[in-house]
Amino acid sequence: MSTVKMGAEYLEVAEKGMAAYRAPSLTQPHKARQALRDAYEGKIDPLVGFYCGVGSVPTSRLMAQLGADIIWVDWEHGQMGVETMTSIVHEVQYMSEGRTMPFVRVPGHDHASIGFALDTGASIIIPQVDTVEQARHVVSAAKFGKAAKGSRSAPPFRWLPGMGDARIDPALSLWENVNNQAAIIIQIESETGLKNLDAILTAVGDQIDAVWMGTLDLRVSMGLDGLWGTEPEYLDAVKSYEDTLKKHRKANSGVCLNDWTKAVNKAFVIVGGDAFALVGEKATISNARQNLHPLANKLQTNGH
After folding, report:
1. CB–CB of 216/270 below 8 Å?
2. Does the structure show a pLDDT above 60 at 304?
3. Which residue would you say has higher pLDDT here, 128 or 79?
4. Percent of the chain with pLDDT over 70
5. Fewer CB near the terminus (10 Å): N or C of the chain?
């Protein structure tokens, strides 16, 4: 845990990575809200994220040691249940010794899934937020207590007395501390969500820490192919999205994948992932075939 006063964690990032934002216990979420805010304000570099979509616990142990700021655990599209998702989050926390923050993309908006993900000690990413009503529901499911507009159930055996319940701010309850630590990122993935983004951030923007334009689903909703594009209607949608975030002073996030122009004005970017790495090995197989074919002919010529 950082020894500097609250709000000055960014001063230790160069030495400690995201351990500068870790909580008193690795069973608690990092001070992820503060980390996103610091990245948005330029106090630290954009947060570097690595995508975990395969859903493998052993693989997550390796990913936890890569030095990423965030591991995105894709519970929405990954083939994993609650137990596997929980194990992956814990591997990220413990194997990185708090130097990497786990974020879980939940499979929907249901109260239980949001609670399961947060109870692991992760922050959350909410897909396909289209309306103010959906955003209010998400915030309610993710926060403890009326003051935070929350209805989240307190996990009785998660942060036991003397075993994980230490507080960052002793003036606040454990639940208020956790509210202030775990981050919420919402994904805007349709024209409807884009149209309602201003109203969403007006209604509950104080509890939403970053927004992510899900370009693949957005383009599908617009009848367009690919992850990105240059169609006028798509570029207009991107501008509308960015203008809305600027109006509300809200952190932007998204996929980069070595096209660094896609990282401009973003506080958090995904730069790689387990699935992407495996796809890249297709070239290794192709290269092997090209180089082994002449050797096979040579073996036949030599009579072996």
Report:
1. no
2. no
3. 128
4. 96
5. C
